[in-house]
Write a sequence for this structure.
């Protein structure tokens, strides 16, 4: 029998789509010119980069000059936070407000900035993983440089009240960054309505290539560059453009529109089927299920189970899932996200994340449920 391969780890990375690959191929083969070169090969590459910029700007509802291509979500988050901190600290603003459940690209950046004199406030979440935007308002002082609140969480899919947070920041005259890496494939974003000054995206989370990202920077936002070098990206992000990756990201962005609602509906139905099935096993809980969530994420905790062991046994059966977030697997630090939601250490230890998408089928879901229940019955408990 052919070995099963069921991919349910789309929050960690997604499959490059055919249209994205087709959009990239010319720049990996014949059109290899440097986008800064004046000759015809360079001009072809330049056109690809600028087309991708226009598509991304159209998606976010901003001007193309406000789109900066980066090497991924981690770089975008670092740039937003370090860039604003470095630009504003000379004015006496050294305070950053973020949440307890951010991705490590945000949390570890904030931690690192403490050594440079930053003061960090971590807004707590309720047991469903949601912040109260009024806590952000209370935390803002005249030394606050930046508020960084993720659009949706990578472990649970829980959506934060980013519109309310953005409004509060605008009222208070404080810069607002949102890490929208997980949310991008499932929400229609308008950065003006969101009152976002900075927003991070990552190509490989929505069928684009790994190592491609975007930082939206609203015109006039004080933000320093991280690197020195050439004049690329308006002099703000030096280094020869990764034309193929940028072209691929642009294609992935335009592919989001046409069928977004049907896609969300389909993925939601798969996720509901999955959770209904998983909950048949005793001692299973779904984390964050009382909150608004992205359609494909499911954070599952199992009583008296070992999440890492479960994950390995699922993998032997051809199922790709994740223990908490991919960035924390391999080290047994309990998930900071579930901890912040007040999930007990024991349940955190028995946690798994499934993230399904439009490439999954109902048969995939039924196989996952069956395998999960079998494993736990036979040997999954500690
Ligand atoms: C994946 C992810 C990142 C990091 O993006 P990379 O492109 O993998 O560096 C940042 N934030 C969130 C919420 C993510 O899910």
């Amino acid at each position: 029998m052919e070995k099963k391969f069921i991919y349910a780890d789309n929050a960690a990375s997604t499959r490059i789509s055919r249209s994205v690959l087709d959009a990239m191929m010319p720049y990996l083969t014949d059109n290899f010119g440097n986008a800064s070169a004046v000759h015809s090969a360079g001009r072809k590459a330049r056109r690809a980069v600028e087309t991708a910029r226009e598509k991304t700007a159209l998606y976010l509802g901003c001007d193309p000059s406000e789109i900066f291509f980066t090497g991924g979500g981690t770089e975008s988050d670092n740039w937003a936070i370090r860039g604003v901190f470095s630009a504003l600290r000379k004015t006496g603003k050294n305070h950053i407000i973020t949440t307890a459940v951010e991705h490590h690209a945000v949390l570890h950046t904030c931690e690192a900035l403490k050594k440079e004199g930053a003061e960090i406030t971590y807004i707590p979440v309720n047991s469903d993983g949601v912040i109260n935007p009024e806590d952000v308002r209370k935390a803002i002082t005249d030394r606050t440089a930046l508020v960084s609140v993720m659009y949706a969480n990578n472990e649970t899919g829980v959506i934060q009240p980013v519109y309310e947070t953005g409004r509060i920041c605008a009222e208070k005259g404080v810069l607002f960054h949102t890490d929208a890496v997980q949310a991008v494939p499932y929400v229609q974003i308008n950065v003006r309505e969101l009152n976002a000054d900075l927003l991070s995206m990552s190509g490989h989370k929505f069928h684009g290539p790994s190592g491609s990202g975007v930082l939206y920077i609203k015109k006039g936002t004080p933000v320093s560059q991280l690197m020195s070098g050439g004049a690329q990206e308006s002099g703000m992000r030096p280094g020869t453009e990764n034309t193929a990756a940028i072209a691929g990201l642009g294609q992935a962005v335009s592919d989001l529109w046409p069928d977004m609602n049907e896609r969300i509906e389909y993925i939601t139905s798969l996720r509901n089927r999955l959770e209904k099935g998983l909950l048949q096993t005793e001692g299973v809980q779904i984390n964050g299920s009382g909150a608004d969530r992205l359609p494909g994420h499911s954070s599952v905790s199992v009583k008296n189970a070992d999440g890492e062991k479960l994950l390995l046994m699922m993998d032997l059966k051809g199922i790709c899932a994740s223990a908490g977030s991919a960035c924390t697997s391999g080290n047994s630090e309990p998930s900071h996200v579930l901890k912040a939601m007040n999930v007990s250490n024991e349940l955190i230890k028995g946690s798994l994340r499934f993230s399904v998408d439009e490439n999954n089928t109902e048969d995939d879901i039924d196989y996952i449920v069956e395998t999960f229940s079998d494993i736990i019955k036979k040997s999954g408990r500690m």
